[in-house]
Structure formats: structure tokens, C-alpha cells
Amino acid sequence: xxxxxxxxxxxxxxxxxxxxxxxxxxxxxxxxxxxxxxxxxxxxxxxxxxxxxxxxxxxxxxxxxxxxxxxxxxxxxxxxxxxxxxxxxxxxxxxxxxxxxxxxxxxxxxxxxxxxxxxxxxxxxxxxxxxxxxxxxxxxxxxxxxxxxxxxxxxxxxxxxxxxxxxxxxxxxxxxxxxxxxxxxxxxxxxxxxxxxxxxxxxxxxxxxxxxxxxxxxxxxxxxxxxx
Length: 228
Hints:
The chain has 228 residues and is α/β, with parallel strands linked by helices. It has a single domain (2-227), classed as Rossmann fold. The chain contains seven helices and ten strands. The chain has a seven-stranded parallel beta sheet, sandwiched between helices. It is globular and about 45 Å long.
């Protein structure tokens, strides 16, 4: 089921989604894992800082976090999504276990086997929720339209090595099947251009683009959080 939530501005969107996020954690039984895969980039930084402040005020059990995808750069690089999570989740750092998509290999292609095993061993359960952004080309995480072979439902593949189609920068991404192995998906987008891309994806209902493939394949609840 797809639901689209509209907000007047990004601050209102952050307030609404942070309340939803905290409710998911609160409602998760203490004997069950609570894991979130979080999109990177600059857009969600205020959202994650709000998440951090809310979590720091509670006595809830620890949670597990991981990035939906990562550039092959050090955490200190401002382009690093794992670095973003470390910068944002400071007040609640002792309560957040970050499961990394990186190791000391020279490239994602060399690292993907070990990272796949790490994910399989340390996060075999469905995500509590996945927060995704979306590019104007319809890409999600680091799954791009020029590599349709990555949009596979092979559940043994937890991560994939990818290249940005324009910059050719190396990245690692949660696989299509791993992103779908979740109790809910929250897509955060802003602006009329991305709203139009989403509407087109809903009409397509095919695997032409990663976002349309995701919407067609998802068996969990999918919600879009949008503002101008």
C-alpha cells in the first residue's frame, strides 16, 4: 500500500517523520531487533539530528543503524554517508550501533563479498524501516537506471558494488532485495520535479527505473513524505 504525505515545508516533514520513527522504536518489543537503513546525502541531515535529539531523551533499548549506500571514501569525507550518521547521532551515540558497509579493501568490488557476509550475520532480520531518497533520474540508494541487472530479488545478495553513471565514483549499496526486506519504506523527497518523477514511476509500474521497480515489488507499506 502506498500513501503520500504532503507537508508545507521540510521542517514540518521532519517533525512528522521523527514522531513516526520514535513510535516504531517504542512499539518494537524489547526482545526483537530494531534496525533502520538510512539514506545519505545532504537533505536528511536535519531529520537525523532531530532523530538523535528525540532518542537521547528516552530510555529505549539500543537500535541498529546502517546507511542504504556509501561512497568509497573515509568517514571524515563530507561525501561519506556513514560519516553523516556519525555526525548526526552524537547525543544518542551510545544507543546506536552503526553497521558499516565498508572495510579496508581498495574498492567496493573487492569488499562486497565480506560486507555481504557481515550483513547476513549481523542483520538477518527485516529492517524496521528503510528511509530512501530519490534522484531526479529515479535512482534509489546507489541503484541507478543504467544498471537494471542490479534490480534483482535474489535474497542471498545483501549488497552490491556500483558506479555513479556520471562521476564514475565507486559506491557500495544495499541490494534491491535487501531494501525490500523491511516492515516499511519511507521515501523522503522535496520539490515539484521529484514529485513528477514519482508520479511517472507510479504510472509506469514496471522495472524501467529503480523507483518504479521498488514500488512495483514492495510488499510492505510504502509512504512518501513530500514538501515543496
